[in-house]
Design brief:
190 residues, alpha/beta, Rossmann fold, 5-stranded parallel sheet, 6 helices, elongated
Length: 190
């Protein structure tokens, strides 16, 4: 049904990953204890970047690879299984992949599957995740979504906005200096 031994497929990072140490630790811990971990939060908050960082670090634990299924551009929930199969490198031998066929392929493998941007396909992603996890004991799923999927055993990790204390502190110091300069200019004899 497809490719031999899976190696994994994650995109390379284009910029340096900064901050989020606490979140990285929480997600790693959650993934060690749960087979479905969903990172939740508003759009643009950094869920995908965090998931990819965790997934790239977890690669050694998954003999058959770490795979990313990017779902942001997918609008038809009926094509979800096809997209996931394509994402893990399986060739499409039928008009549509069935969940059962995908589960059969993954059943004896140790794989981490990252389902990215599930929110607009939440119901379909929940059904797929539930079916795959029930049939594939070596599978773990790391999902990103604006809200929980609602699958039994799901652990959610809320992703908060990133703080930038160094910038905030620098701005505060700059404001203090500007205020001091203004005070000196307006002081008598200044």
């Amino acid at each position: 049904m497809g490719a031999g031994r899976l190696a994994g497929r994650l995109p390379g990072e284009l910029t340096e990953f900064v901050g989020r140490r606490a979140e990285l630790a929480r997600v790693r811990d959650a993934l060690e204890g749960a087979r479905l971990v969903t990172l939740t939060g508003p759009g643009g908050i950094g869920k995908t970047r965090l998931a990819l960082r965790v997934a790239s670090g977890a690669g050694r634990a998954f003999d058959d690879g770490v795979w990313l299924a990017e779902l942001g551009g997918l609008r038809n929930p009926g094509l979800l299984v096809n997209e996931v199969a394509r994402s893990i490198g399986l060739s499409d031998r039928s008009a549509r992949w069935a969940v059962v066929s995908l589960a059969d392929y993954l059943r004896a493998r140790r794989v981490l599957l990252v389902l990215d941007q599930c929110e607009h396909l939440a119901d379909a992603c929940a059904v797929l995740a539930d079916a795959l996890l029930r049939g594939c004991p070596g599978l773990r799923i790391l999902a990103t979504s604006r809200h929980v999927l609602g699958v039994a055993g799901e652990v959610t990790v809320p992703v908060p906005p990133m703080t930038v204390p160094a910038v905030d502190a620098r701005r505060s110091r700059q404001r203090s200096r500007i205020g001091a300069l203004r005070t000196r200019r307006h002081a008598p004899g200044g």
